[in-house]
Design goal:
778 residues; 27 helices; 7-stranded beta/alpha barrel; 4 domains; six-stranded mixed sheet
Length: 778
């Protein structure tokens, strides 16, 4: 779609948004990560700092009020790792939908979408086998088409790592362009057809180039502006949108270029650079209102300015390829090349080589067994490569594995076996995720995660061979030594995971506690990848359940005996079938075995049950608290202090019950009681108790806001939200208004005009606008 932009220069800012797969493969749940506090895990922390922030970025007026909420993704080029999008779709659908919406809007504006694909789980492609590279590319492209409802034109290469072999495979997959660092370019073609060697600062960033694969095939590459990327990533350029805009104008005027583009990690916009998303939103406004630039994307630019000159890439150490984050090529991901992130004095990264050697050993065994078993099961009528490459549909959630296997006429009795083989292949791919080698030490979160994936792959495939995969694999891992003596070596880490409670046992324990501890509305039938198919109580302390692994289709019939003792704690004696020997085994699952994340959920069920207080009880409690407050002001005694502790807990439970007990009285009838309870907590509460109140109201405001997002605005729901906001303001509760601002913005902005049909509704919207700190100019 050709646009008339006069003398404006094209501007493309690319953000690479990605998180490695972090799930515990035994249950497919991300464990609680203490280093991410106060969030459960790093996905949640960076989501809040960055992914969500850029979908709903605030543009403030001079008084600090919200003037506009901008979807930054509508204006920048971007890619999201498929494993991250899968997580966002499941846990943060509103942000996920805004990302897809941004691409649709960019297609409408430019003819081509801002989004490009990514090789699936961020493996370093030049170091992979040809088959693995093909799978990574095809899984990534299929995931993209499934989500964005169009084919991808470009693909982000993990760490921009590339060589001529990878180029040929990209071309074969019909990828049109890639984005690379200028430092990866060795030479460019001149006007007279000769090649001139260049360094990164000399690469013409204002034009695309043609790269050749090892078979002569051709792909287009854009080499981004190096200084601009460095200033955004490390020079704090995102602290001042005006200065950034001026810097762009200087580049335009000095170079006289029609295109300025650069690429950075997307997490810089809000996570690495706090509030960087807001600087980007301000820059977007300046660009759109100014006369110097217009936002576009790579494919839209390429349509009008096709590449005409060729470029040659550096081959890297050992001729393995080049990347943007290793000056040696791709050595960072297979040896101690000197690149590292942090670490203490004297540390080395010699562990990288034995870690890769161990994984490559295991991968070779797995690949051979996979081909042998698939040919045997399907009697040579199904190509193992076609079966595996199509498995991306299952990984991305397009089909469940049973439905997928029906397309290959798989007998029902063989489905669990084939599903296990495919799941083992997914684990094999995940163990090569680039983050496992990127950081300073083997004992970090990311290398540990890769080792966990590897041990899971080994477990799934041991069933298909009499050879001990574990023996040689662990021997090779033992050569990968941590810089911290306490972390041991790769074998130490693998053994830690091999000793973990089996996934089906953990799931059974979860379902038992959920059934016993929860109210009806908290009852669950899913725990990570496990589905509860049946649950029965045999007698007072004996239970039985059937759980199914949705990834491998394996079903387990499990019996549990409860041994509960106040002093000893909670213990389950669990009988199930061992997956390798098919023999009955007995596991003991104690309170110590409950993962931190599960424990948080168990506490929430108990808390919900304790906080179930009727409206009549609530009124009595509030009155009693008021009496206590009045008479205890001048009394000093132990009885007073003891009663204070009891009353504070009662107050908090009563407050929570406002939003967890089915309503029998209207909000107006509860307001006096709420006032008494909050008054006591605000006057007498400690910091922690104030934080609990903040969270109670944050959760309820967000719940109502999400209902408005899902069901649309109505006067009743809007009035209730306004009442909540009034209480928050009056009592000086530090509740987050973020979700409510995002839900109400379309109505305040006037894009949903159907809700302005009556003066009453119009007045309510204006009141909400003020309560939610929106500028009058919104």
């Amino acid at each position: 779609m050709k646009q008339d932009n006069g003398t404006k220069s094209a501007l493309i800012l690319h953000g690479h948004f990605y998180q490695p797969p972090r799930e515990n493969p035994l249950v497919e749940i991300i464990p609680k990560q203490e280093s991410a506090k106060p969030y459960h895990d790093w996905n949640e922390k960076i989501f809040d700092d960055c992914y969500r922030a850029n979908a709903f970025s605030r543009y403030l007026d001079r008084y600090g009020l919200v003037r506009d909420i901008v979807n930054n993704y509508e204006y920048i080029s971007f890619n999201f790792g498929p494993t991250l999008l899968n997580w966002l779709e499941k846990y943060h659908k509103a942000t996920y939908d805004k990302i897809l919406e941004a691409d649709r809007h960019s297609v409408e504006r430019l003819g081509y979408g801002n989004a490009i694909a990514q090789a699936y789980n961020h493996t370093i492609l030049p170091l992979g086998t040809k088959d693995d590279v093909e799978t990574q590319i095809l899984w990534g492209l299929e995931d993209f088409e499934h989500r964005f409802k169009r084919k991808a034109h470009g693909m982000w290469l993990p760490e921009t790592a590339v060589n001529t072999s990878v180029i040929s495979q990209l071309v074969e997959a019909k990828v049109s362009f890639i984005i690379l660092s200028p430092w990866q370019c060795k030479a460019v073609e001149t006007d007279n057809g000769e090649f001139k060697e260049v360094d990164g600062n000399e690469i013409p960033f204002d034009q695309p180039f043609i790269l050749q694969g090892d078979d002569g095939s051709e792909i287009t590459a854009f080499f981004y502006h190096p200084d601009l990327a460095s200033s955004i990533s490390f020079g704090h350029m995102l602290r001042d949108a005006d200065a950034m805009y001026d810097s762009l104008k200087v580049i335009k005027e000095r170079k006289g270029v029609d295109l300025i583009h650069t690429a950075t990690d997307g997490e810089i916009y809000g996570h690495h650079e706090p509030f960087g998303d807001m600087a980007l939103a301000a820059l977007i406004r300046k660009v759109n209102e100014g006369n110097s630039f217009y936002f576009t994307n790579y494919m839209a630019y390429l349509e009008e300015h096709p590449a005409t000159k060729k470029a040659i890439l550096h081959s890297g150490e050992d001729n393995k390829g080049s990347s943007w984050s290793c000056s040696h090529g791709v050595s960072r991901w297979y040896k101690d090349c000197g690149c590292h992130t942090g670490g203490e004095k004297g540390w080395n990264q010699k562990w990288r080589t034995p870690l890769r050697v161990a994984f490559e050993y295991l991968a070779e065994k797995i690949d051979r067994l996979f081909v042998e078993q698939i040919k045997l099961i399907y009697k040579n009528k199904v190509d193992p490569r076609i079966l595996l490459n199509g498995y991306g549909k299952v990984i991305s959630g397009m089909e469940d594995v049973s439905t997928y296997l029906e397309g290959f006429n798989t007998p029902p009795s063989d489905k669990p076996t084939v599903a296990k083989l495919l799941e083992g292949q997914r684990m094999k791919h995940y163990m090569f995720t680039s983050c496992g080698w990127f950081f300073s030490d083997l004992g970090g979160i990311e290398p540990r995660q890769n080792i966990f994936f590897a041990t899971r792959a080994m477990q799934l495939y041991q069933h298909f061979t009499k050879e001990s995969l574990e023996k040689e694999f662990l021997h090779l891992l033992s050569e990968a030594k941590s810089n911290r003596r306490s972390d041991g070596n790769g074998r130490t880490i693998a053994n830690h995971y091999l000793q973990k409670v089996r996934g089906e046992v953990e799931a059974a324990a979860y379902f038992l506690m959920n059934q016993r501890f929860s109210r009806k509305e908290d009852i669950k039938s899913e725990y990570g990848k496990y589905l509860l198919k049946a649950f029965n109580q045999i007698d007072e302390m004996e239970f039985a359940c059937e759980v199914e692994d949705s990834k491998t289709l394996k079903k387990d019939f499990i019996t549990m005996d409860v041994l509960a003792d106040i002093l000893a704690g909670y213990t389950l004696r669990i009988e199930s079938t061992d997956p390798l020997s098919d023999k009955l085994v007995v596991d003991t699952f104690t309170t110590e075995d409950i993962p931190s994340r599960m424990m948080d959920e168990v506490y929430s069920w108990i808390d919900h049950s304790l906080s179930r207080i009727s409206d009549e009880e609530l009124k009595h409690i509030a009155t009693s608290i008021r009496h206590y407050s009045l008479i205890s002001k001048k009394v000093n005694s132990r009885a007073k202090e003891s009663m204070y502790i009891e009353n504070m807990g009662t107050c908090l439970r009563a407050l929570r019950s406002l939003f967890t007990t089915p309503d029998t009285l209207p909000w107006e009838a509860k307001k006096e009681s709420i006032s008494h309870l909050l008054g006591f907590i605000q006057r007498r509460g400690r910091t922690y108790e104030h934080e609990i109140v903040d969270k109670i109201f944050t959760d309820e405001i967000s719940r109502v806001a999400n209902l408005i997002t899902t069901n649309g605005f109505n006067y009743e729901m809007g009035s209730y939200l306004y009442e909540l906001l009034e209480v928050v303001a009056k009592q000086k509760i530090k509740a987050s208004l973020t979700v409510a601002q995002e839900a109400l913005y379309p109505y305040i902005k006037g894009t949903n005009r159907d809700n302005y049909k009556t003066p009453l509704t119009h007045t309510l919207i204006e009141n909400l606008q003020r309560s939610l700190n929106f500028s009058p100019e919104s």
